[in-house]
Amino acid sequence: MTRTLRRLLKFLLIIGVVVGLIWLIQQYGMERIRANVAHMGVWAPIGIFALRFISVVIPALPSTAWSLLAGSVLANFWTALITVVLADVIACSLAFFLAKKFGRNLVEKLVGTKFMDKVDKVSQRHLETNFFLLMGFLMTGVFDFVSYGVGLTTTRWVQFIPALLIGITIHNTPVVAIGAGLFAEGNGQLLAVGAVLGIFSLAIITGWLQRRKSQAARG
Length: 219
Description:
Elements: H1 3-28, H2 30-39, H3 43-57, H4 64-73, H5 77-102, H6 104-111, H7 116-123, H8 131-138, H9 143-151, H10 157-181, H11 187-218
InterPro entries: TMEM64 (IPR015414), VTT_dom (IPR032816)
Organism: Acaryochloris marina (strain MBIC 11017)
Pfam families: VTT_dom
């Protein structure tokens, strides 16, 4: 699967989730949908947790759509955010330990040969010596690859986990908020606007990290 095809599939999945939600809302109404999801009890967040977890452990699978879905259909913003953050923290910790214990061969099987360059670039950045740079990389959309890459370095889990918790929470908050505010009124729409601004902020951080990488490569 090429990088372009992977990005296209991610985009199509996100669009598909949004279109599907719009259709369901038109047919049944948002309150009825959320009532039905609430009727599922704990199985609704568990289902979204599982989907998000799998899409992080196997990075070739799109994961952003599940954050939007969680924000849209779960009981409230905090339930959705906690569900997604827990899935990411556990999945990224697993990725870190798998890379640490089994090395590059297993990582290549999980992420795919064509995407190993992302993992290799991270493992060569010496992020274990810079907590804030590590946290910054974990705030980007390639946090799953970063977790595998950091696992291939000398970084210890006690160094990795605080950066992961902060980075993942910052990364997920605006995406879940967009899902929560997408079909809401009043304050919900303000939440969505704030989330979009958060996405732009993350994009600026990603651009800064890319410049740091380019400067390090030239140096």
